[in-house]
């Protein structure tokens, strides 16, 4: 690679990282804060929470990366144009590919990186996160760790404890069970403990109140009573995985007995093609950025800032791709659109880049904007003159 190409690549990579890291940190922080209840509700340690936060990070990299590349390319090339560096490069007779080659190679490498992240790393992290959360909430004792506070274990089942002691023992238990519409049960116990396997809550020295649909209340005292938690523990400890949690090989050949696949088969095919098509975004967005600001332009030329133009086009393609994916989840007939949208956008930008054509608004829209601008200037000018 030539010295000039290395110089351009170095500046773009530096600006790319400058844009990527802060945005990644902000989005990562918001995602982590949404799961802060893992500590407050289930009593997990700070170390476990940090492990969870670390596993969340790879799941957002592939989304932020293409836009950071757009910012890196447009900001670097715009700065070089303002400093007349692009004009000097053209005047020196350097071919246009001197600017384009290193950036397209960078974008191709990032596309491959995105493909690997979305295809294998991201789903593996999603599985780990779901498994960790399900395991944390599987134990009833961890779910009611906060004293003197009602906790909803599942719809219709609430638990409160007055005091937590060493081991798995508790004092002052109150369990309200209204899951069965035929009866409402309220358990009071002076002491209790959760078995080591989490299958039962053993209560001692208490009573149970049973209320029938007719309003009759029956009170039974007990010395020892075991409240069955086996079904609850199994259900809470079992993570449910969807299409986004599966790796690329699984999406290509799903388990025919997978309940989620049987109920939503289009989700798996739509997710498979979304990952493949979305991995093209870094390359497509880089070509669009080069089309917008890859050549020397006059400072007097009135135009929207190149970064704003490139980001608007990139966001439009990104949102359009997500919309097409949602359509593909309802019907497999929309799957070709998942590829047509990025490939057509990139192909059009590549054609304009190869033929040295500059993007411009349609003449009708340009005239409308010009007329609106002229009318606004006249009004401001008239108003200013009257005030004077």
UniProtKB/TrEMBL annotation:
TM segment ranges: 12-29, 49-71, 103-121, 272-292, 304-321, 333-354
InterPro entries: LptF (IPR030922), LptG/LptF_permease (IPR005495)
Subcellular location: Cell membrane
Membrane topology category: Multi-pass membrane protein
Domain of life: Bacteria
Keywords: Cell membrane, Membrane, Transmembrane, Transmembrane helix
Subcellular location, principal: membrane
NCBIfam families: LptF_YjgP (TIGR04407)
Protein name: Lipopolysaccharide export system permease protein
